[in-house]
Protein backbone atom coordinates (compact mmCIF):
# COMPACT_ATOMS: atom_id res chain seq x y z
CA UNK A 1 0.00 0.00 0.00
CA UNK A 2 1.33 3.45 -0.93
CA UNK A 3 0.48 7.01 0.11
CA UNK A 4 1.85 9.85 -2.00
CA UNK A 5 4.49 7.53 -3.42
CA UNK A 6 5.66 6.25 -0.02
CA UNK A 7 5.16 2.66 1.03
CA UNK A 8 2.84 2.42 4.04
CA UNK A 9 3.38 -1.27 4.61
CA UNK A 10 2.29 -4.71 3.48
CA UNK A 11 -0.47 -7.02 4.65
CA UNK A 12 -1.37 -10.65 4.13
CA UNK A 13 -5.03 -10.01 3.41
CA UNK A 14 -7.44 -7.14 2.76
CA UNK A 15 -10.83 -8.24 4.03
CA UNK A 16 -13.54 -6.42 2.11
CA UNK A 17 -11.56 -5.89 -1.09
CA UNK A 18 -13.52 -8.61 -2.88
CA UNK A 19 -17.28 -8.03 -2.75
CA UNK A 20 -20.15 -8.38 -5.19
CA UNK A 21 -21.68 -4.91 -5.34
CA UNK A 22 -24.48 -4.56 -7.93
CA UNK A 23 -24.02 -1.94 -10.64
CA UNK A 24 -26.02 1.25 -10.06
CA UNK A 25 -29.51 0.90 -11.47
CA UNK A 26 -31.16 3.33 -13.86
CA UNK A 27 -33.02 5.98 -11.83
CA UNK A 28 -35.21 9.00 -12.51
CA UNK A 29 -34.14 12.49 -11.42
CA UNK A 30 -35.97 15.84 -11.55
CA UNK A 31 -34.30 19.23 -11.91
CA UNK A 32 -36.53 21.93 -10.37
CA UNK A 33 -36.88 25.64 -11.24
CA UNK A 34 -34.69 25.31 -14.30
CA UNK A 35 -33.05 27.98 -16.43
CA UNK A 36 -31.91 26.04 -19.52
CA UNK A 37 -29.10 27.27 -21.77
CA UNK A 38 -29.64 27.19 -25.55
CA UNK A 39 -32.91 25.31 -25.29
CA UNK A 40 -31.55 22.37 -23.31
CA UNK A 41 -34.29 19.98 -22.21
CA UNK A 42 -36.56 20.74 -25.13
CA UNK A 43 -35.90 17.39 -26.79
CA UNK A 44 -34.69 13.91 -25.81
CA UNK A 45 -30.92 13.92 -25.44
CA UNK A 46 -28.42 11.36 -24.17
CA UNK A 47 -25.11 12.13 -22.45
CA UNK A 48 -22.43 9.74 -21.21
CA UNK A 49 -21.87 11.77 -18.05
CA UNK A 50 -22.83 15.09 -16.47
CA UNK A 51 -21.66 16.93 -13.38
CA UNK A 52 -23.97 18.70 -10.91
CA UNK A 53 -22.20 21.52 -9.07
CA UNK A 54 -23.22 23.79 -6.22
CA UNK A 55 -21.70 27.20 -5.52
CA UNK A 56 -21.65 29.56 -2.54
CA UNK A 57 -20.79 33.18 -3.39
CA UNK A 58 -19.43 31.99 -6.72
CA UNK A 59 -17.13 29.35 -5.21
CA UNK A 60 -17.67 25.69 -6.06
CA UNK A 61 -18.69 23.75 -2.95
CA UNK A 62 -19.63 20.33 -4.26
CA UNK A 63 -19.76 18.21 -7.38
CA UNK A 64 -21.68 15.07 -8.18
CA UNK A 65 -21.35 13.04 -11.36
CA UNK A 66 -24.16 11.11 -13.03
CA UNK A 67 -23.65 8.63 -15.86
CA UNK A 68 -25.70 7.27 -18.77
CA UNK A 69 -27.98 10.33 -18.58
CA UNK A 70 -30.99 10.89 -20.85
CA UNK A 71 -33.39 13.85 -20.96
CA UNK A 72 -36.88 12.30 -21.02
CA UNK A 73 -39.12 15.31 -20.54
CA UNK A 74 -39.46 18.99 -19.61
CA UNK A 75 -42.40 21.14 -18.46
CA UNK A 76 -43.22 23.96 -16.03
CA UNK A 77 -39.61 24.69 -15.17
CA UNK A 78 -38.79 21.05 -14.47
CA UNK A 79 -36.53 18.73 -16.48
CA UNK A 80 -36.83 14.98 -16.09
CA UNK A 81 -33.74 12.80 -16.49
CA UNK A 82 -32.87 9.15 -16.23
CA UNK A 83 -29.36 8.13 -15.28
CA UNK A 84 -27.10 6.26 -12.89
CA UNK A 85 -24.91 7.37 -10.02
CA UNK A 86 -21.20 6.58 -10.17
CA UNK A 87 -20.27 3.04 -9.17
CA UNK A 88 -17.23 4.15 -7.16
CA UNK A 89 -18.24 4.67 -3.54
CA UNK A 90 -16.37 7.92 -2.97
CA UNK A 91 -17.93 9.47 -6.08
CA UNK A 92 -21.53 8.64 -5.18
CA UNK A 93 -23.94 11.41 -4.15
CA UNK A 94 -24.17 12.66 -0.58
CA UNK A 95 -27.15 11.50 1.43
CA UNK A 96 -28.56 15.05 1.66
CA UNK A 97 -28.79 17.93 -0.81
CA UNK A 98 -25.58 19.95 -0.40
CA UNK A 99 -25.91 23.61 0.58
CA UNK A 100 -25.37 26.28 -2.03
CA UNK A 101 -26.86 29.00 -4.19
CA UNK A 102 -28.49 26.53 -6.58
CA UNK A 103 -26.97 24.11 -9.08
CA UNK A 104 -25.49 24.03 -12.54
CA UNK A 105 -25.25 20.95 -14.75
CA UNK A 106 -22.96 20.32 -17.69
CA UNK A 107 -20.87 17.64 -19.44
CA UNK A 108 -17.73 19.20 -17.94
CA UNK A 109 -16.66 22.01 -15.62
CA UNK A 110 -16.78 24.71 -18.30
CA UNK A 111 -19.98 23.99 -20.25
CA UNK A 112 -23.33 24.82 -18.65
CA UNK A 113 -26.46 23.12 -19.96
CA UNK A 114 -28.91 24.24 -17.27
CA UNK A 115 -29.06 26.07 -13.95
CA UNK A 116 -31.65 25.00 -11.39
CA UNK A 117 -32.63 25.59 -7.78
CA UNK A 118 -32.63 22.00 -6.54
CA UNK A 119 -32.97 18.37 -7.65
CA UNK A 120 -35.03 15.39 -6.56
CA UNK A 121 -33.90 11.76 -6.55
CA UNK A 122 -30.13 12.24 -6.55
CA UNK A 123 -29.10 12.91 -2.96
CA UNK A 124 -30.13 9.94 -0.85
CA UNK A 125 -28.60 6.81 0.60
CA UNK A 126 -28.35 3.73 -1.59
CA UNK A 127 -27.67 0.86 0.83
CA UNK A 128 -27.42 -1.66 -2.01
CA UNK A 129 -24.22 0.10 -3.14
CA UNK A 130 -22.56 0.09 0.30
CA UNK A 131 -19.19 -1.64 0.35
CA UNK A 132 -18.13 -3.73 3.36
CA UNK A 133 -15.72 -2.08 5.82
CA UNK A 134 -12.10 -3.03 5.21
CA UNK A 135 -9.76 -4.80 7.62
CA UNK A 136 -6.04 -5.14 6.93
CA UNK A 137 -4.92 -8.50 8.32
CA UNK A 138 -1.29 -9.16 9.19
CA UNK A 139 -0.33 -5.58 8.36
CA UNK A 140 3.37 -4.77 8.73
CA UNK A 141 3.63 -0.96 8.66
CA UNK A 142 6.73 0.92 7.68
CA UNK A 143 8.30 2.50 10.81
CA UNK A 144 7.28 6.02 9.83
CA UNK A 145 3.66 4.96 9.42
CA UNK A 146 3.62 2.93 12.65
CA UNK A 147 4.51 6.13 14.49
CA UNK A 148 1.46 7.79 12.98
CA UNK A 149 -0.83 4.79 13.36
CA UNK A 150 -0.66 4.18 17.10
CA UNK A 151 -0.13 6.27 20.21
CA UNK A 152 3.23 4.82 21.27
CA UNK A 153 3.23 6.42 24.73
CA UNK A 154 -0.18 5.00 25.62
CA UNK A 155 0.76 1.64 24.11
CA UNK A 156 3.97 1.42 26.15
CA UNK A 157 2.12 2.34 29.35
CA UNK A 158 -0.67 -0.19 28.85
CA UNK A 159 -0.81 -3.40 30.86
CA UNK A 160 0.70 -6.30 28.86
CA UNK A 161 -2.51 -8.28 28.88
CA UNK A 162 -4.45 -5.31 27.47
CA UNK A 163 -2.43 -5.31 24.27
CA UNK A 164 -2.34 -8.99 23.58
CA UNK A 165 -3.64 -10.73 20.50
CA UNK A 166 -7.09 -9.49 19.60
CA UNK A 167 -6.95 -6.50 21.97
CA UNK A 168 -7.24 -2.95 20.68
CA UNK A 169 -4.26 -0.64 21.20
CA UNK A 170 -4.51 3.13 21.74
CA UNK A 171 -4.97 4.91 18.42
CA UNK A 172 -3.48 8.23 17.44
CA UNK A 173 -6.35 8.91 15.04
CA UNK A 174 -5.53 8.70 11.36
CA UNK A 175 -7.15 8.81 7.95
CA UNK A 176 -5.74 6.29 5.50
CA UNK A 177 -5.50 7.33 1.86
CA UNK A 178 -3.56 4.77 -0.13
CA UNK A 179 -3.38 2.85 -3.37
CA UNK A 180 -3.25 -0.95 -3.40
CA UNK A 181 -0.50 -2.93 -5.08
CA UNK A 182 0.07 -6.66 -5.29
CA UNK A 183 3.29 -8.45 -4.35
CA UNK A 184 4.18 -11.12 -6.90
CA UNK A 185 5.99 -14.30 -5.91
CA UNK A 186 9.22 -12.97 -7.44
CA UNK A 187 9.08 -9.98 -5.11
CA UNK A 188 7.96 -7.39 -7.65
CA UNK A 189 5.25 -4.90 -6.72
CA UNK A 190 2.44 -4.91 -9.26
CA UNK A 191 0.55 -1.68 -9.84
CA UNK A 192 -2.95 -3.14 -9.95
CA UNK A 193 -4.62 0.14 -11.00
CA UNK A 194 -6.81 -0.04 -7.89
CA UNK A 195 -7.61 3.43 -6.63
CA UNK A 196 -7.32 2.17 -3.10
CA UNK A 197 -8.67 3.07 0.28
CA UNK A 198 -9.89 6.38 1.70
CA UNK A 199 -11.04 5.71 5.26
CA UNK A 200 -10.46 6.43 8.92
CA UNK A 201 -8.67 3.85 11.06
CA UNK A 202 -11.03 2.81 13.84
CA UNK A 203 -9.04 0.08 15.62
CA UNK A 204 -5.55 -1.42 15.67
CA UNK A 205 -4.68 -4.68 17.44
CA UNK A 206 -1.77 -7.12 17.38
CA UNK A 207 -2.22 -9.78 14.75
CA UNK A 208 -1.92 -13.52 15.27
CA UNK A 209 0.62 -14.35 12.53
CA UNK A 210 3.61 -12.83 14.32
CA UNK A 211 5.34 -10.02 16.16
CA UNK A 212 5.27 -6.65 14.48
CA UNK A 213 2.06 -7.46 12.61
CA UNK A 214 -1.25 -5.71 13.17
CA UNK A 215 -4.89 -6.06 12.23
CA UNK A 216 -6.26 -2.67 11.24
CA UNK A 217 -9.98 -1.88 11.03
CA UNK A 218 -11.21 0.90 8.76
CA UNK A 219 -14.58 2.62 8.90
CA UNK A 220 -15.33 2.36 5.19
CA UNK A 221 -14.92 0.05 2.24
CA UNK A 222 -12.49 0.13 -0.65
CA UNK A 223 -12.84 2.86 -3.25
CA UNK A 224 -13.15 0.16 -5.89
CA UNK A 225 -14.10 -3.37 -4.87
CA UNK A 226 -13.32 -6.43 -6.97
CA UNK A 227 -15.95 -9.07 -7.75
CA UNK A 228 -15.53 -12.27 -5.75
CA UNK A 229 -15.14 -14.14 -9.04
CA UNK A 230 -11.87 -12.26 -9.54
CA UNK A 231 -10.31 -13.67 -6.37
CA UNK A 232 -9.08 -17.02 -7.78
CA UNK A 233 -7.25 -15.57 -10.78
CA UNK A 234 -5.99 -12.65 -8.69
CA UNK A 235 -4.40 -15.05 -6.19
CA UNK A 236 -3.06 -17.36 -8.87
CA UNK A 237 -1.56 -14.47 -10.85
CA UNK A 238 0.30 -13.15 -7.81
CA UNK A 239 1.62 -16.66 -7.19
CA UNK A 240 2.57 -17.21 -10.82
CA UNK A 241 1.52 -15.41 -14.02
CA UNK A 242 -0.34 -17.51 -16.61
CA UNK A 243 1.74 -20.10 -18.44
CA UNK A 244 -0.95 -20.81 -21.04
CA UNK A 245 -2.82 -18.36 -23.24
CA UNK A 246 -6.57 -17.94 -22.95
CA UNK A 247 -7.09 -18.07 -19.18
CA UNK A 248 -9.22 -14.93 -19.50
CA UNK A 249 -11.72 -16.68 -21.79
CA UNK A 250 -13.21 -18.66 -18.89
CA UNK A 251 -14.01 -15.47 -16.96
CA UNK A 252 -17.32 -13.63 -17.00
CA UNK A 253 -17.19 -10.54 -19.24
CA UNK A 254 -17.22 -8.17 -16.25
CA UNK A 255 -14.11 -9.89 -14.80
CA UNK A 256 -12.00 -9.68 -17.95
CA UNK A 257 -11.08 -6.06 -17.38
CA UNK A 258 -9.69 -7.14 -13.98
CA UNK A 259 -7.59 -9.77 -15.71
CA UNK A 260 -6.37 -7.06 -18.07
CA UNK A 261 -5.38 -4.83 -15.15
CA UNK A 262 -3.16 -7.61 -13.80
CA UNK A 263 -1.62 -8.13 -17.24
CA UNK A 264 -0.90 -4.41 -17.35
CA UNK A 265 0.63 -4.48 -13.87
CA UNK A 266 2.89 -7.43 -14.72
CA UNK A 267 4.05 -6.04 -18.08
CA UNK A 268 7.80 -5.45 -18.32
CA UNK A 269 8.50 -2.21 -20.17
CA UNK A 270 12.24 -2.88 -20.15
CA UNK A 271 11.92 -5.79 -22.61
CA UNK A 272 12.64 -4.83 -26.26
CA UNK A 273 9.68 -5.00 -28.64
CA UNK A 274 9.37 -7.48 -31.49
CA UNK A 275 10.66 -6.19 -34.83
CA UNK A 276 8.16 -5.00 -37.46
CA UNK A 277 6.89 -7.44 -40.06
CA UNK A 278 5.80 -10.16 -37.60
CA UNK A 279 2.57 -12.15 -37.93
CA UNK A 280 0.24 -12.64 -34.96
CA UNK A 281 -2.93 -14.70 -34.50
CA UNK A 282 -6.15 -14.10 -32.54
CA UNK A 283 -9.13 -16.45 -32.14
CA UNK A 284 -12.39 -14.68 -32.96
CA UNK A 285 -14.51 -17.16 -31.02
CA UNK A 286 -13.56 -15.40 -27.79
CA UNK A 287 -13.70 -11.76 -28.94
CA UNK A 288 -17.04 -10.07 -28.29
CA UNK A 289 -15.90 -6.53 -27.40
CA UNK A 290 -12.86 -4.27 -27.21
CA UNK A 291 -11.77 -5.64 -23.81
CA UNK A 292 -11.71 -9.18 -25.23
CA UNK A 293 -9.71 -7.93 -28.20
CA UNK A 294 -7.15 -6.28 -25.92
CA UNK A 295 -6.77 -9.53 -23.93
CA UNK A 296 -6.38 -11.59 -27.11
CA UNK A 297 -3.99 -9.21 -28.86
CA UNK A 298 -1.83 -8.86 -25.76
CA UNK A 299 -1.32 -12.62 -25.58
CA UNK A 300 -0.87 -12.92 -29.35
CA UNK A 301 2.01 -10.46 -29.18
CA UNK A 302 3.54 -11.12 -25.76
CA UNK A 303 2.51 -14.68 -24.88
CA UNK A 304 0.43 -15.94 -21.92
CA UNK A 305 -0.73 -13.07 -19.72
CA UNK A 306 0.64 -10.57 -22.23
CA UNK A 307 -0.41 -6.95 -22.38
CA UNK A 308 -0.52 -4.48 -25.25
CA UNK A 309 -3.13 -1.96 -24.11
CA UNK A 310 -6.18 -1.28 -21.95
CA UNK A 311 -8.37 0.12 -24.73
CA UNK A 312 -7.87 1.09 -28.36
CA UNK A 313 -6.24 4.43 -27.53
CA UNK A 314 -3.81 2.60 -25.25
CA UNK A 315 -3.13 -0.09 -27.86
CA UNK A 316 -2.44 2.56 -30.51
CA UNK A 317 0.03 4.25 -28.21
CA UNK A 318 1.91 1.00 -27.60
CA UNK A 319 2.44 -0.15 -31.18
CA UNK A 320 5.91 1.38 -31.16
CA UNK A 321 7.60 -1.46 -29.29
CA UNK A 322 6.80 -0.29 -25.75
CA UNK A 323 4.38 -3.21 -25.35
CA UNK A 324 5.99 -5.85 -27.53
CA UNK A 325 4.96 -5.06 -31.10
CA UNK A 326 6.14 -2.59 -33.72
CA UNK A 327 4.02 -1.91 -36.78
CA UNK A 328 3.65 -2.76 -39.55
CA UNK A 329 2.58 -6.31 -38.74
CA UNK A 330 0.02 -8.84 -39.93
CA UNK A 331 -2.84 -10.03 -37.75
CA UNK A 332 -4.54 -13.26 -38.72
CA UNK A 333 -8.04 -13.18 -37.22
CA UNK A 334 -9.40 -16.70 -37.25
CA UNK A 335 -13.17 -17.16 -37.02
CA UNK A 336 -13.57 -13.44 -37.59
CA UNK A 337 -17.26 -13.93 -38.39
CA UNK A 338 -17.90 -15.03 -34.80
CA UNK A 339 -16.45 -11.73 -33.58
CA UNK A 340 -18.48 -9.78 -36.12
CA UNK A 341 -21.69 -11.43 -34.94
CA UNK A 342 -20.88 -10.89 -31.26
CA UNK A 343 -19.72 -7.29 -31.59
CA UNK A 344 -22.08 -6.05 -34.27
CA UNK A 345 -21.14 -4.91 -37.75
CA UNK A 346 -20.27 -1.28 -36.98
CA UNK A 347 -18.08 -1.89 -33.88
CA UNK A 348 -16.30 -4.73 -35.69
CA UNK A 349 -15.57 -2.55 -38.72
CA UNK A 350 -14.41 0.27 -36.45
CA UNK A 351 -11.89 -2.15 -34.96
CA UNK A 352 -10.66 -3.22 -38.40
CA UNK A 353 -10.32 0.44 -39.40
CA UNK A 354 -8.38 1.18 -36.21
CA UNK A 355 -5.90 -1.60 -37.00
CA UNK A 356 -5.55 -0.47 -40.60
CA UNK A 357 -4.92 3.13 -39.52
CA UNK A 358 -2.15 1.80 -37.25
CA UNK A 359 -0.46 -0.08 -40.13
CA UNK A 360 -1.66 -3.54 -39.15
CA UNK A 361 -2.89 -5.74 -42.00
CA UNK A 362 -5.82 -7.91 -40.91
CA UNK A 363 -6.46 -11.24 -42.61
CA UNK A 364 -9.91 -12.54 -41.69
CA UNK A 365 -10.32 -16.31 -41.79
CA UNK A 366 -13.12 -18.78 -41.25
CA UNK A 367 -12.63 -21.99 -39.34
Low-pLDDT segments:
157-163
**Largest beta-sheet details:** 6 strands, antiparallel
- Assigned CATH class of the largest domain: Alpha Beta
What is the third-level CATH name, the topology of the largest domain? Answer: Barnase, Chain D
Q: Calculate Rg over CA atoms.
A: 25 Å
Beta content: 25-35%
Question: How is the topology of this model organized?
Answer:
Blueprint: E1 2-3, E2 6-7, E3 9-10, E4 13-15, E5 27-36, E6 45-56, E7 59-75, E8 78-85, E9 103-106, E10 114-120, E11 135-141, H1 143-149, H2 152-157, E12 175-183, E13 189-206, E14 214-218, H3 231-239, H4 253-266, E15 279-283, H5 290-302, H6 312-318, E16 329-334, H7 336-343, H8 345-357, E17 360-365
Parallel strand pairs: 15-16, 16-17
Antiparallel strand pairs: 1-2, 3-11, 4-11, 5-8, 5-10, 6-7, 6-9, 7-8, 9-10, 11-14, 12-13, 13-14
Helix pairs in contact: 4-5, 7-8
Amino acid sequence: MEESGRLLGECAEIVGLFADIPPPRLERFTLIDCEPVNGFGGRPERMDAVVLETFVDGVRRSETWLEDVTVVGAADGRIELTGRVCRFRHEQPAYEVPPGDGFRMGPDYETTLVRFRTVEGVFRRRPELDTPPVTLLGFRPEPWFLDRMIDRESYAAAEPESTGQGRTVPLAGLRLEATIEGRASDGRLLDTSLRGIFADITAVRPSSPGAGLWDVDLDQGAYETLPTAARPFWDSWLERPPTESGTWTSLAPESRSRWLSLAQAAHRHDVPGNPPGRTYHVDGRHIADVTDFCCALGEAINGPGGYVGWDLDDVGGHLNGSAGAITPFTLIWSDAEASRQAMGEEPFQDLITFLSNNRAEVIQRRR
